[in-house]
Q: What sequence folds into this?
């Protein structure tokens, strides 16, 4: 049997996470290894393994993920200072969990371009 997807398990409530928002389509929770003072992951309830696999019918869902990032940036106090929202796609980009997730990070200044350490 294939190993269950950890983010599907979190979305279904079968695995613990510090959830900061959930609705019919998405769940947002704190990253277990935060890379900034505020670091949450916004995931769709629908399992999509990578941004290479998104389809035209996912457009509204992806828009909803970005609107959720904007809402959480305000609710969690990083809207004014600025924040980064990122999808890592594939190995070179650093993707390690194969269920798409929008990283929302803020609370410190971040370097650009994102060379190692940034
Ligand atoms: P990626 O490297 O795929 O873009 O991001 C995966 C993120 O998921 C990492 O920042 C990692 O710390 C986080 N992560 C991995 N496993 C878990 C987990 O079980 N719970 C939580 N809350 N975050 C996780
Ligand atoms: Zn999944």
A:
């Amino acid at each position: 049997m294939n190993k269950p997807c950890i983010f599907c398990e979190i979305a279904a409530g079968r695995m613990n996470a510090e959830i900061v928002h959930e609705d019919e389509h998405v769940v947002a929770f704190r990253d277990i290894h935060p890379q900034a003072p505020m670091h949450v992951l916004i995931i769709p309830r629908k399992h999509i393994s990578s941004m290479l696999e998104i389809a035209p019918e996912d457009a509204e869902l992806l828009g909803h993920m970005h609107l959720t990032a904007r809402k959480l940036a305000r609710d969690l106090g990083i809207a004014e200072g600025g924040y980064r929202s990122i999808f890592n796609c594939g190995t070179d980009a650093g993707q390690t969990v194969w269920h798409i997730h929008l990283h929302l990070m803020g609370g410190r200044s971040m370097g650009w371009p994102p060379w190692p350490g940034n």
The first helix runs from residue 6 to 11. Helices lie at 6-11, 59-75.
